[in-house]
Amino acid sequence: MSNIPADLRYAASHEWSRLEADGTITVGITDHAQDLLGDVVFVELPEVGRTVTAGEECAVVESVKAASDIYAPVSGEVIAFNEALGDTPELVNSEPYAGAWFFKIKPTDSSELDKLMDAEAYGASI
Amino acid sequence: MGSRTPLYDQHVAAGAKMVDFGGWDMPLHYGSQIEEHHQVRQDVGMFDVSHMTVVDVTGTEAKGYLQYLLANDVSRLTLAGKALYTAMLNEQGGVIDDLIVYLMQGGYRLVVNAATREKDLAWMHAQAEEFAVTLTERSDLAMLAVQGPRAREVAASVVSDTRGALINDIKPFQGLADGDWFIARTGYTGEDGLEIILPADQIADLWDALLAAGCKPCGLGARDTLRLEAGLNLYGSDMDESVSPLAANMAWTIAWEPGEREFIGREALEAQRDAGDQPKLVGLVLSERAVLRGHQKVIVEGIGEGEITSGSFSPTLGVSIALARVPRATGDHAKVEIRGKQLPVRVIKPGFVRNGKPLFD
């Protein structure tokens, strides 16, 4: 069974989003997604300062099996990406919700988060 | 539900992620494909290959039949126990399948691919009509590949003394019978190792004994990255019925001599050889952080284009590698188109890793 933390929001394309105390949103991919992909070997992340729109392709995960696009769950500006994934992409498999966060967005409208699924809805969708 | 090998319960017990492979329920991996890959390069792993088809060819004209059926020449097998890698071609010189032939006491044993079983058997039976031969599909047998630098040591430790002695003495690319077991020093990984063909009702015991001796189960995922690093073709990806062995790095498996030996596809191959216009299968190495995949376009400046036939990440080298079919005049550099970008790749002979070591600088 996949691990689906109750405090996160989820996109149908398997990204999770976490609203931080400072109003920024941290994004990664779910346990279910990493399980489907198999061993992750490279992650291509967006540059800091890039403006993204909800649903826009902004990162790529390459696993032994396939390349998979990652979509911005909300609109805003990318304010950080996870440099650790450069050297240790396998974190995506071992710690999908912790060490393997992908990037942080300063959202233009944090209410966009409400359009994403809660844990229960995401669990029912997979 | 697909067909199940006699090791299905062992796979499930070992935590396998099962997938469909040519109609068979097979293990893709048991947790991490990359760890299984390293296990085989550095120690010892085992693969259930019971889905592969074993066909015994017997009868007074078995040799003549196989000399006609196959592009390599079974008369090269002079002693019982020798093995030969060969293509089985159609009249147009396209590859129907690639297979291994072993010379046994009283006949030959062929091991062909699982996904091509039905068309192979139909073709083999059709060609057999003119010959005094009997083809016997051995679905009573199962097959386990034990691969890695410690494969023979570990395998020898869990079998009878006579089989252990056989495993210690067997030469590369040799296959020998011991009772109802057939043990070959062959494989699909680029490492030392064995392929053991045995009665289906005995394979679970062998699996359990190897597991207890430290041999780790490995799935089809690791099998694919290991064979790709070794530069070994995968039927259906790197060649098929529309591809000549000359365009699939298999020219070395064609026995042109003796010139009077008629074999299916010979005429077409001779014309291709004389024309010298077949593309070639090469290895590609990408140093950028991306992964080469099957069907990506290869661009060779000033010469033309080709296509990746199989590609993946190489766990041993830490970069992406591929096999690609490109124009014959291709030199040592090309570009591959990945998600709209053209990335430079090195072009080398197929074969990236052998016995744990890189094959190129």
Structure, described:
The complex is a heterodimer of chains A (126) and B (361). Chain A has a single domain (9-108), classed as OB fold (Dihydrolipoamide Acetyltransferase, E2P), CATH 2.40.50. Helix content of chain A is 17%, strand content 33%. Chain A is built from 4 helices and 9 strands. Chain A has helices at residues 31-37, 84-87, 91-94, 119-125; strands at residues 9-10, 15-19, 25-29, 40-44, 51-52, 57-63, 67-71, 76-81, 103-107. A 6-stranded antiparallel β-sheet of chain A has the order 1-2-3-9-8-5. Chain A has a 3-stranded antiparallel β-sheet with strand order 4-6-7. The radius of gyration of chain A is 13 Å and the shape is globular. By secondary structure, chain B is α+β, with helices and mostly antiparallel strands. A 6-stranded mixed β-sheet of chain B has the order 10-11-12-9-3-13. In chain B, strands 14-17-16-15-18-19 form a 6-stranded antiparallel barrel. A 5-stranded antiparallel β-sheet of chain B has the order 5-6-7-4-8, covered by helices on one side. In chain B, helix 2 packs across helix 8 and helix 5 packs antiparallel against helix 6 (161-169). Classes of the chains: A alpha+beta (126), B alpha+beta (361). At the A-B interface, strand 4 of A face loops of B.
In short:
By secondary structure, chain A is α+β, with helices and mostly antiparallel strands.
Radius of gyration of chain A: 13 Å
Sequence stretches where pLDDT stays below 50 over 5 or more residues of chain B: none
For the record, the CATH class of chain A is Mainly Beta
C-alpha end-to-end distance of chain A: 11 Å
Primary descriptors:
heterodimer; A: 126 residues; alpha+beta; OB fold (Dihydrolipoamide Acetyltransferase, E2P); six-stranded antiparallel sheet; three-stranded antiparallel sheet; 4 helices; 33% strand; B: 361 residues; six-stranded mixed sheet; 21 strands; globular
What's the topology here?
The complex is a heterodimer of chains A (126) and B (361).
Chain A: E1 9-10, E2 15-19, E3 25-29, H1 31-37, E4 40-44, E5 51-52, E6 57-63, E7 67-71, E8 76-81, H2 84-87, H3 91-94, E9 103-107, H4 119-125
Chain B: H1 8-13, E1 17-21, E2 24-29, H2 33-42, E3 45-48, E4 53-58, H3 62-69, E5 83-89, E6 95-104, E7 107-112, H4 117-128, E8 134-137, E9 141-147, H5 151-157, H6 161-169, E10 175-178, E11 181-184, E12 193-199, H7 203-212, E13 216-217, H8 220-229, H9 266-275, E14 280-286, E15 297-300, E16 304-314, E17 319-326, E18 333-338, E19 341-348, E20 353-354, E21 357-358
Parallel strand pairs in B: 3-13
Antiparallel strand pairs in B: 1-2, 3-9, 4-7, 4-8, 5-6, 6-7, 9-12, 10-11, 11-12, 14-17, 14-19, 15-16, 15-18, 16-17, 18-19, 20-21
Helix pairs in contact in B: 2-8, 5-6
